[in-house]
Design brief:
This protein is an alpha+beta fold. It contains five helices and six strands; from the N terminus they run E-H-E-E-H-E-E-E-H-H-H. The strands form two sheets. Strands 1-4-2-3 form a four-stranded antiparallel sheet, covered by helices on one side. A two-stranded antiparallel sheet has the order 5-6. The structure holds glutamic acid. Glutamic acid binds next to loops.
């Protein structure tokens, strides 16, 4: 179980306040980590172990992107740490993912990606996802949706 939120603001309004409201409303879905990723030309990822109050202590409120995702974590793989909180970012820094659930075959996927030179910063199963998306794009997926 977890909470996952995604917002695209057509009016180019900053999505950060709505993402924070969302993770507050969904807090009962997971207490092990809280995080947001906001795109404003550059990807800004802010996350913390535990509840929203922990994230708020280190949040950069000046981030004003109009596209973003957020996550409440209910840990299944890896302890409740800052590194294991979502969103998880691909090694190249270009793709952020907030994931709900379990990837049963993540060990073999992680081993395959590691053999190809990928390094990981968390103990989660979820971190393979952004790296698999980057790999699919590199291997010729026609667009982002196909890569996902
Ligand atoms: N399996 C992932 C993790 O442990 C996602 C858990 C969730 O659904 O919150 O980080």
């Amino acid at each position: 179980m977890c909470g996952v939120i995604g917002i695209v603001s057509q009016g180019k309004k900053s999505v950060l306040p709505s993402l924070l409201k969302g993770v507050e409303l969904l807090q009962s879905r997971g207490y092990d980590g809280t995080g947001v990723a906001v795109l404003d030309g550059k990807l800004h990822v802010m996350k913390s172990e535990g509840k929203l109050s922990n994230l708020l202590q280190k949040l950069d409120k000046s981030v004003v992107g109009s596209v973003g995702i957020a996550h409440n974590r209910w840990a299944t793989h890896g302890e409740a740490t800052d590194q294991n909180a979502h969103p998880h970012v691909s090694m190249d820094g270009n793709v952020a993912v907030a994931h709900n659930g379990i990837i049963d075959n993540y060990r073999s996927l992680k081993a395959m990606l590691s053999q190809e030179g990928c390094t990981f910063v968390s103990e989660t199963d979820s971190e393979v996802i952004p790296n698999l998306i980057v790999r699919a794009l590199r291997d010729g997926a026609p667009d982002f949706a196909s890569a996902v």
